[in-house]
Amino acid sequence: MQVEDRKIIDAIIVELNHFRFTRSSISYQYLIDAIHLVVKEPKNIKNFNKNIYGKIAKNYATRPENILWSLNKLIDMMYSNTPSDIIYDYFKFFMDEKPTLKFFIITVARNVYDNQNVLS
User: Fold this and answer.
1) Taking 50 as the threshold, does the pLDDT of residue 118 lie above it?
2) What SS3 class is residue 60?
């Protein structure tokens, strides 16, 4: 793994530490991979199925639908386990709003890209 990729992944993990995830699950690794793909190439957000879920599925020898399902379940569990004020502070949401999977990935990727200077 290149030094630049390691720095990006470390920055992603720092961002994800704001939330309560089951970090030992394969879905958590999928999430890191998805955010990494967006940080490395922001235009990937134009087609999540092909550019994000498809690429991750290929790496793990599974189908894009399985990646999407796993990530949605991971976000659901995070939302249930993370205090609402933490979610509100991070996403600037009202207390009862749950971020969508795409919004979560894009927002975390943007924060990594903007706040961490990982690409310099």
Assistant:
1) no
2) coil
| The pair of three-digit structure tokens given for residue 102, joined into one six-digit string | 């795409």
DSSP class of 96? T
- pLDDT, one tens digit per residue, over 42-80 is 999 999 999 999 999 999 999 999 999 999 999 999 999
* 69 CB neighbour count, 10 Å cutoff: 13
What is the reported pLDDT for 2? Answer: 87
Residue at 118: amino acid letter: V
The C-alpha atoms of residue 93 and residue 99 are separated, in whole angstroms, by 8
Q: In angstroms, rounded to a whole number, what is the distance separating the alpha carbons of residues 49 and 111?
A: 22
Using CA atoms, how far residue 34 sits from 2, 48, 96, 97, in Å, is 17, 9, 25, 22
Instruction: Quickly tell me which residue has 């509100």 as its tokens.
Output: 88
